[in-house]
Write a structure and sequence with these properties.
Number of domains: 1
Shape: rod-shaped
Number of helices: 1
Length: 100
Protein backbone atom coordinates (compact mmCIF):
# COMPACT_ATOMS: atom_id res chain seq x y z
CA UNK A 1 0.00 0.00 0.00
CA UNK A 2 1.48 3.33 -1.05
CA UNK A 3 0.46 6.65 0.41
CA UNK A 4 1.47 9.74 -1.50
CA UNK A 5 2.85 12.85 0.16
CA UNK A 6 -0.16 14.82 -1.07
CA UNK A 7 -2.29 12.91 1.38
CA UNK A 8 -0.28 14.37 4.28
CA UNK A 9 -0.49 18.04 3.21
CA UNK A 10 -2.53 20.04 5.64
CA UNK A 11 -3.14 17.10 8.00
CA UNK A 12 -2.02 16.88 11.61
CA UNK A 13 -0.89 13.81 13.56
CA UNK A 14 -4.47 13.11 14.58
CA UNK A 15 -5.76 13.38 11.01
CA UNK A 16 -3.50 10.92 9.20
CA UNK A 17 -5.01 8.97 6.33
CA UNK A 18 -5.74 5.27 6.87
CA UNK A 19 -2.67 3.07 6.52
CA UNK A 20 -0.19 5.80 7.49
CA UNK A 21 2.64 4.78 9.81
CA UNK A 22 3.51 7.01 12.74
CA UNK A 23 6.66 7.22 14.84
CA UNK A 24 4.75 5.58 17.69
CA UNK A 25 4.00 2.60 15.41
CA UNK A 26 7.66 2.35 14.48
CA UNK A 27 8.69 2.58 18.15
CA UNK A 28 6.29 -0.21 19.15
CA UNK A 29 7.66 -2.38 16.34
CA UNK A 30 11.22 -1.64 17.43
CA UNK A 31 10.47 -2.58 21.05
CA UNK A 32 8.81 -5.81 19.88
CA UNK A 33 11.79 -6.66 17.70
CA UNK A 34 14.17 -6.05 20.60
CA UNK A 35 12.35 -8.52 22.79
CA UNK A 36 12.21 -11.12 20.00
CA UNK A 37 15.93 -10.72 19.35
CA UNK A 38 16.60 -11.07 23.08
CA UNK A 39 14.63 -14.34 23.20
CA UNK A 40 16.44 -15.61 20.10
CA UNK A 41 19.84 -14.81 21.61
CA UNK A 42 18.88 -16.61 24.81
CA UNK A 43 17.90 -19.69 22.80
CA UNK A 44 21.17 -19.55 20.86
CA UNK A 45 23.14 -19.39 24.13
CA UNK A 46 21.26 -22.42 25.47
CA UNK A 47 21.88 -24.37 22.26
CA UNK A 48 25.56 -23.38 22.32
CA UNK A 49 26.00 -24.56 25.92
CA UNK A 50 24.25 -27.86 25.09
CA UNK A 51 26.53 -28.28 22.08
CA UNK A 52 29.64 -27.70 24.20
CA UNK A 53 28.40 -30.24 26.77
CA UNK A 54 27.68 -32.78 24.02
CA UNK A 55 31.18 -32.27 22.58
CA UNK A 56 32.70 -32.82 26.02
CA UNK A 57 30.67 -35.99 26.60
CA UNK A 58 31.54 -37.29 23.13
CA UNK A 59 35.25 -36.74 23.79
CA UNK A 60 34.97 -38.53 27.15
CA UNK A 61 33.09 -41.41 25.50
CA UNK A 62 35.77 -41.78 22.83
CA UNK A 63 38.48 -41.86 25.49
CA UNK A 64 36.69 -44.62 27.38
CA UNK A 65 36.20 -46.64 24.19
CA UNK A 66 39.89 -46.38 23.31
CA UNK A 67 40.83 -47.52 26.82
CA UNK A 68 38.55 -50.55 26.56
CA UNK A 69 39.89 -51.42 23.11
CA UNK A 70 43.49 -51.14 24.34
CA UNK A 71 42.68 -53.47 27.27
CA UNK A 72 40.96 -55.96 24.96
CA UNK A 73 43.90 -56.10 22.55
CA UNK A 74 46.37 -56.36 25.45
CA UNK A 75 44.35 -59.25 26.84
CA UNK A 76 44.33 -60.95 23.44
CA UNK A 77 48.09 -60.49 23.18
CA UNK A 78 48.58 -61.98 26.63
CA UNK A 79 46.36 -64.94 25.66
CA UNK A 80 48.50 -65.57 22.56
CA UNK A 81 51.69 -65.35 24.64
CA UNK A 82 50.32 -67.79 27.26
CA UNK A 83 49.16 -70.12 24.49
CA UNK A 84 52.63 -70.10 22.89
CA UNK A 85 54.23 -70.73 26.28
CA UNK A 86 51.89 -73.65 27.05
CA UNK A 87 52.52 -75.07 23.59
CA UNK A 88 56.30 -74.83 24.08
CA UNK A 89 56.07 -76.51 27.49
CA UNK A 90 53.85 -79.27 26.10
CA UNK A 91 56.28 -79.84 23.24
CA UNK A 92 59.23 -79.95 25.64
CA UNK A 93 57.40 -82.41 27.90
CA UNK A 94 56.54 -84.62 24.95
CA UNK A 95 60.06 -84.57 23.51
CA UNK A 96 62.05 -84.93 26.70
CA UNK A 97 59.90 -86.98 29.04
CA UNK A 98 57.40 -89.06 27.05
CA UNK A 99 59.73 -90.20 24.25
CA UNK A 100 62.48 -91.39 26.57
Amino acid sequence: MTVSLRAFRGSTLTELPPGAVTLADLYRELVGMRSEIGRALTRIEVIDSRSEEADRLHSDHETRLRTLERFRFSLMGAAVAVSALVSAIATWIEVSIVRH
